[in-house]
Write a structure and sequence with these properties.
Number of domains: 1
InterPro entries: Met_Sox_Rdtase_MsrB, Met_Sox_Rdtase_MsrB_dom, Mss4-like_sf
Keywords: Metal-binding, Oxidoreductase, Signal, Zinc
Oligomer: single chain
CATH architecture: Beta Complex
GO biological process, one term: response to oxidative stress
Protein name: Peptide-methionine (R)-S-oxide reductase
CATH superfamily: Peptide methionine sulfoxide reductase
Number of strands: 9
Bound molecules: zinc ion
GO molecular function, one term: peptide-methionine (R)-S-oxide reductase activity
Distance between the termini: 91 Å
Radius of gyration: 28 Å
Helix content: 25-40%
Strand order of the largest sheet: 3-4-8-7-6-5
CATH topology: Metal Binding Protein, Guanine Nucleotide Exchange Factor, Chain A
């Protein structure tokens, strides 16, 4: 091979490299500046982790259950409202709290219920088959926090027992109005 061809070949290689670098640079530019503005699920989870204690995160975001007879609100008889620990939506009133003997704070009705109509409350019900039995999960309508479950063995007149984890709640004294 003639020695004089070498510089030309090197020149071609450099040109090729430069065009490759330029095109990859062009390719990156729109992606870097073109975020959609929506948060990924991972980002949201990280934010909850930052703002909640590990126990609160485990129960509300990973559908955990606090150990029975451990919750700080189990025996709370003060008058007031129980709010969602994640988003501060009012969920339950002390008026409908009762001692079910199960080891978790229990309520016979959701705050804002009219008759049997829960459409103006901040909770949602969702079927839960995770433990082998069919239960009804109770979730915060506003932020999707797992709160507990509802059973149909509560006191009259509602006949319902909302079995709620203390760590998913934040109690504030007063009427909540
Ligand atoms: Zn909430």
């Amino acid at each position: 091979m003639a020695a004089h061809l070498l510089p030309r070949m090197l020149g071609n290689v450099l040109l090729l490299l430069r065009s490759l670098l330029r095109s990859s640079g062009d390719g990156l530019a729109p992606a870097a500046g073109g975020g959609t503005g929506t948060l990924s699920e991972a980002t949201v989870a990280t934010d909850w982790k930052k703002n909640l204690t590990p126990g609160q995160f485990y129960v509300t975001r990973e559908k955990g259950t606090e150990p029975l007879f451990s919750g700080i609100y189990l025996n709370n008889t003060e008058l007031g409202i129980y709010y969602c620990v994640c988003c501060n939506a009012p969920l339950f009133s002390s008026e409908k709290k009762y001692n079910s003997g199960t080891g978790w704070p229990s309520f016979s009705e959701v705050y804002g219920t009219r008759g049997r109509d829960e459409s103006n409350t901040n909770i949602m019900r969702r079927p839960d088959n995770s433990s082998g039995s069919i239960r009804t999960e109770v979730i915060c309508k506003r932020c999707d926090a797992h709160l507990g479950h509802v059973f149909d063995d509560g006191p009259t007149p509602s006949g319902q027992r909302f079995c709620i984890n203390s760590v998913s709640l934040n109690f504030k004294q007063g009427s909540g109005q």
